[in-house]
Amino acid sequence: MAASDERIGEDSAMRASGPAVVIHAGAGPLSDELLERESDVQAALLDALRRARAGLEAGAAAEEGALAAVVAMEDFPLFNAGRGSALCADGSVQMSASVMRGRDRGAGAVAGLRRAINPILGAREVMLSEQVLLVGEAADEWLAERGLEQLANGDFVTERQLVRLRVGAEADRGTVGAVCLDRGGNLAAATSTGGISGQPVGRVGDSPLLGAGTWADRRVAVSCTGDGEAFIRAGVARQIAALVECGVGLAEASERALGEVAARGGMGGLIALDACGRWCAPFTTAAMPRGAWRSGGEAQVHVRDVRALT
Amino acid sequence: MAASDERIGEDSAMRASGPAVVIHAGAGPLSDELLERESDVQAALLDALRRARAGLEAGAAAEEGALAAVVAMEDFPLFNAGRGSALCADGSVQMSASVMRGRDRGAGAVAGLRRAINPILGAREVMLSEQVLLVGEAADEWLAERGLEQLANGDFVTERQLVRLRVGAEADRGTVGAVCLDRGGNLAAATSTGGISGQPVGRVGDSPLLGAGTWADRRVAVSCTGDGEAFIRAGVARQIAALVECGVGLAEASERALGEVAARGGMGGLIALDACGRWCAPFTTAAMPRGAWRSGGEAQVHVRDVRALT
């Protein structure tokens, strides 16, 4: 396994950072489509960063920053989340999402949603309840009772995804995610996905599973993307947090976790951010659209190269 | 938080153990019912140990031992798994289970099943597929196609659980779980639950979530029971494994993880077994029916006291 050479900026990063946000829009192959639409993807990433930044600069909590970035990416139909989600084997859409707040480990997740315009806002609604994870049709009904905006399942289906399902396109890993650090030094993580093109109805990957695809505590926030089953079997996000708890550096912990994914035959990437504002964004695929912004700096986005976010 | 004084037998345990199995049937209050039915519960635990032991002594793999023990406990109607499961708010039954094999991290899980006689065998079926987690009605259909034995949902409803739902009984934590070490030194873990009495339909706890309620790798196998949401937010099973990876002892790692559950306002317990045959079974509730057997020793079970399994 050769992870990309993205490394955490251990030296350059500020020790006591202002707000920061790091986002990803899925690790996957360097497709012709991604090359053709690169400027659109960059614009979508910049928009997501801008929305999170606006909130964080105004004093919003880390989870609100992460939610704002993920909502923006869910709304962009080229990403595999919300409208534009990959289609199940039967041509329907099933969406999953999770959010976690590091300060008190508040967490909410939804899996197998069929109607939520923004699944990540469904995850937030669950975070506000006594539950942590709600699944399936009952979750859609629970969210409808609480006024979450919904559409018919067919409204989430895009021509692009119909074609991908028809031709048996390579796994669509356009999962989206964000990790944020707020002014108060609190962290949060959020992840949202439409799953894999052609997946069986009812299949759930790592994105809605706290500790697999998403995690935040007082030390670190993580959002993952890639071969979901391998990420679950590796327990990626929780492993990174526990290794950091044991004194392992953020970049080394992230590389070790991606190494465990590779040992399970999986590829993918992740973004990780710590309470000092240091981050890393390693991936083992050919591309991972991603971006970052830190207080006092400029927003930066990369799509297809392996240049590190600095 | 004062965890029970169950401690791993660091000194007494064999370093190179033969097969071993540890089981639990849920951490919870010391109810009148538990006191009245104590001998039945002990007999059920001994039966589960006996079935796992028979397989392991005949050379079965660790996951087959864990599955045999969990099937036996699912079939015992006083435990909250399979028939006898807690009822959702609408009076229906939803069952979840997971199994993980440490050798290669093979894993399978199901959540929100309504028809499987033995949900843990549904989890095994998923482990044999490309998926790791299947949820809801689609999971029941997927398992029916593969010949898993099923019943109508109403057939899982017991008079005992109807009464509990009616009177708003204290959370039923009779989740069941097993961890095994086989002759080859491989570990496995399995957990099965009916959830919490009165839970919203669609609610999923930690039991089917690899890294939260269940985990196995080459070093350690863990099965948890207790307040599911707090166990998810603490990322219990994966944290224990990562701490052990970092050199922390099994008992200390388990206590730290239960401490994180307590910090989230949760109670519960867990069983953990390492590749040398050392185990621990700490809990923060008044009772946790549990048992253990190790090659060359006698099977032992405890229900209500805090005596350590040795």
What's this model, at a glance?
The structure is a homodimer of 310-residue chains. The first copy, chain A, is of the alpha+beta class. Helix content of chain A is 31%, strand content 21%.
Describe this structure in words.
- Two copies of one chain form a homodimer.
- The first copy, chain A, has helices spanning 32-36, 38-57, 62-74, 119-127, 136-145, 159-167, 228-234, 236-245, 250-263; strands spanning 20-24, 95-101, 107-113, 133-135, 176-181, 187-193, 203-204, 214-216, 220-226, 268-274, 279-280, 290-294, 300-302.
- Helices cover 31% and strands 21% of the residues of chain A.
- Chain A contains nine helices and 13 strands.
- In chain A, strands 4-3-2-6-5-1-12-13 form an eight-stranded mixed beta sheet. The first copy, chain A, has a four-stranded antiparallel beta sheet with strand order 8-9-10-11.
- In chain A, helix 2 (38-57) runs antiparallel to helix 3 and helix 8 packs antiparallel against helix 9.
- Chain A is of the alpha+beta class and 310 residues long.
- Chain A binds chain B through residues 100, 104-107, 111-112, 130-139, 141-142, 200-205, 209-212, 215, 228-229, 232-235, 238-239, 241-243, 245-246, 248, 264, and chain B through 100, 104-107, 111-112, 130-139, 141-142, 200-205, 209-212, 215, 228-229, 232-235, 238-239, 241-243, 245-246, 248, 264.
- Strand 7 (203-204) of chain A pairs antiparallel with strand 4 (133-135) of chain B, so a sheet runs across the interface.
